[in-house]
Amino acid sequence: MKRLILCCLIASLSSIYAFGQQDTLQQYTGKYKFPEGSVIPEVEVVLNDGVLVMNSSVGTSALRHEKDDEFTIIGLNGSAVFKRGNDKDKKVNTVLIDAMGYTVSGNKETSGIRAPGIIRVILPVGSFLKPSA
Questions:
Q1: What domains sit in the chain, N to C, each tagged with a CATH number?
Q2: Which of 37, 46, 60, 121 has an alpha carbon within 20 to 30 A of 71's alpha carbon?
Q3: Is 28 exposed, middle or buried, given 0-12, 13-18 or 19+ CB atoms closer than 10 A?
Q4: Does an H or E element contain 7, and which?
């Protein structure tokens, strides 16, 4: 019985750690735009099966966490350092990439307020049209 309880406890803690880690990695995801004339116009950082992946026009690579906001770009033997804003939330807003002899800095694209969609209401025709007399 003790083994069963221990196994359940370990499984619970493992899943809590995994979900917590995904939430932590989620803060880095998004599209980062680089200045005009940069080697690459943009990168997109996504979370794929619990692993951060960077997609760009030069290829796709997994990111390995090193410390704090610093990652190794495994496929390019480079580094990605995420920077945070000075606001109270300290949200990630910039990435500095050093790879293949190039260093570029890009800002995270923020999604603006989306316009509301069109709402269609279907009314029976006879409900508001009256025959003319």
A1: 2-110 (2.40.128)
A2: 37
A3: buried
A4: helix 2-26
